[in-house]
Write a structure and sequence with these properties.
The protein is built from 10 helices and 12 strands. By secondary structure, it is an alpha/beta fold. A 5-stranded mixed sheet has the order 4-3-2-5-6, sandwiched between helices. A 5-stranded mixed sheet has the order 9-8-7-10-11, sandwiched between helices. Bound molecules: 5'-O-[(R)-(carboxyoxy)(hydroxy)phosphoryl]adenosine (KG4) and zinc ion (ZN). The site of 5'-O-[(R)-(carboxyoxy)(hydroxy)phosphoryl]adenosine has 20 residues, from α5 and α6.
Length: 344
């Protein structure tokens, strides 16, 4: 059964979006494809912190508990009702399968009950389009560096709905590397912000760590870097280690992103995903882009980590392409970019 169908392009005035792919339950309403009316995030961070990472079964149960009250809260805050929505949007992958399934099931039920079109959203495309929430002037072609806990991708946005994957990580994602280094140093979960914080007191040049896959196109690899950190642990302070590790990650990400922009002759670059909250990465990419006269777009912190507003924005893009979900829309643990291309 096909999960997507293609019809005429449309511009839903009000989109209600659900995001449940990992450890944040989020509901948002987007107006006219540009104004976030409300974006609520119920984080499960505390719930998973004592396990040192996300426990899928716990995540799934918590999504189920909070999603309905959260939808009600968002509608109440916005003084809007479900019947006033022009479309619903939902993340249907990639993510923790049980977690994604909660959002998909609720969204499909509401779409059916209220007779609304349902916009199927790939979580990564949510991150990819997140800079548009605050920078509507961003237009294709542009190069997007997408760095989250589960993914590290370089994408060329050739046109609306025309994404070309330039490269991705061969092993750990950038965020995953931050989380694992934090775990190694007993800094707690989630690791990214804690590594960044400790790094502020350290010297980024304290030790020379590898810059993995430096001359190998747009592919990334972070697991060797993580091992190098492990070996250096006894010879350098945790702050110096964090600073050196962070610098190595930033160097590789910035270098490959700029290379991609120059190779493809684009003059806009965007940064998105949880790791986009990393201050030194934001600064380095901004600086390097400015040096070359390239426009740089990054969302504010609220829209870097998982949130419903970016899912609404990506859903709005799907509506523009005329793509909606059929009743057979399913949850997927892994989902390639633009999976609808091959199946509708
Ligand atoms: O996009 P996101 O919220 O969830 C996924 O889709 O994976 O990204 C979460 C990731 C985690 O690995 C977290 O450690 C990382 O983003 N992260 C950071 C920072 N804030 C969050 N990494 C580096 N520096 C930060 N300030
Ligand atoms: Zn994410």
């Amino acid at each position: 059964m096909l999960e997507y169908q293609r019809g005429s392009s449309f511009r839903p005035f009000l989109v209600l979006a659900l995001e449940t792919s990992c450890d944040e339950t989020s509901v948002a309403i987007l107006k006219d494809g540009q104004q976030v009316v409300c974006n609520r995030i119920a984080s499960q961070e505390e719930l998973h912190a004592r396990y040192g990472g996300v426990v899928p079964e716990i995540a799934c149960r918590r999504h189920f508990e909070v999603i309905h009250p959260l939808i009600e809260e968002v509608l109440e805050d916005s003084s809007l009702s479900l019947s006033e929505m022009d479309a619903l949007a939902v993340t249907h992958g990639p993510g923790l399968i049980g977690a994604v399934l909660v959002g998909v099931t609720v969204a499909k039920t509401l779409a059916l009950a209220f007779d609304k079109p349902l916009l199927p959203v790939n979580h990564l495309e949510g991150h990819l389009y997140s800079p548009l929430l605050e920078h509507p002037q961003l237009k294709p072609p542009w190069v997007s560096l997408l760095v989250s806990g589960g993914h590290t991708l370089l994408v060329l946005v050739e046109d609306w709905g025309q994404l070309r994957l330039l490269g991705q990580t061969r092993d750990d994602a950038a965020g995953e590397a931050f989380d694992k280094v934090a775990k190694m140093l007993n800094l707690g979960y989630p690791g990214g912000p804690r590594v960044q914080q400790l790094a502020e007191q350290g010297d980024p040049a304290a030790i020379r760590l590898p810059r993995p896959m430096r001359n190998q196109g747009y592919a990334f690899s972070f697991s060797g870097l993580k091992t190098a950190v492990h070996h250096a642990q006894s010879s350098v302070s945790p702050a110096d280690l964090c600073a050196s590790f962070q610098q190595a990650v930033v160097d590789v990400l910035v270098e490959k992103t700029l290379q991609a922009a120059m190779d493809h002759g684009v003059n806009s670059v965007s940064l998105a995903g949880g790791v986009a909250a990393n201050q030194p990465l934001r600064q380095a990419l901004l600086q390097q882009c400015q040096k070359r006269g390239i426009n740089f777009y990054v969302p504010s912190f609220e829209y870097c980590t998982d949130n419903g507003a970016m899912i609404a924005m990506a859903g709005y893009q799907m509506a523009g392409l005329g793509i909606t979900a059929t009743p057979w829309l399913d949850a997927h643990a892994s989902l390639p970019l633009q999976s609808w291309r091959n199946s509708c």
